[in-house]
Design goal:
The protein has one domain. It is built from eight helices and no strands. The N terminus is likely disordered.
């Protein structure tokens, strides 16, 4: 039993259980939920070969927020170790990537860079996290200025 605890047996089982039940959009901070929907919308436009800026600005109520969202999406694409997995636009459940990205936005909203870095630990190289932090802070600043 002690060997199992040293290896994280009970923690691993809990982690596997959590992976089987993805979080729902309803539990997210509104800024994080808007970003998830925005990423899904950007993906739809990318597949169609269209520029999403105008529709994002309309849906988000601000051209500045739309531009900051696109900026963050570009940074995520450049930093993420593999293509970001997004769910369908109508899906209420989050992919694991969406849940991680939402947690980044929530950490930036609360100005918790320690929590932000914890979400990215082992996922991306540490030098890449500063760019994501700066873009998340700019997004939440534009979101809060709009409100």
């Amino acid at each position: 039993m002690a060997e199992r605890d040293k290896l994280g047996g009970s923690g691993a089982a809990r982690w596997i259980e959590q992976l089987q039940h993805p979080p729902a959009l309803e539990v997210l901070h509104p800024a994080a939920a808007r970003l998830v929907f925005s990423l899904r919308l950007i993906a739809i436009h990318a597949r169609a070969g269209r520029d999403p800026t105008a529709e994002l600005a309309l849906r988000l109520g601000s051209m500045t927020v739309a531009v900051r969202t696109l900026q963050l999406a570009d940074s995520i694409g450049a930093c993420w170790p593999e293509p970001v997995q997004l769910r369908r636009f109508c899906c209420r459940a989050l992919s694991h990537d969406e849940a991680t990205i939402a947690a980044l936005v929530e950490a930036a909203w609360h100005n918790r860079q320690d929590q932000f870095n914890l979400q990215l630990h082992g996922l991306i190289r540490p030098e890449r996290s500063q760019r994501l932090w700066a873009d998340c802070v700019e997004l939440v600043a534009s979101e809060s200025a709009r409100a």
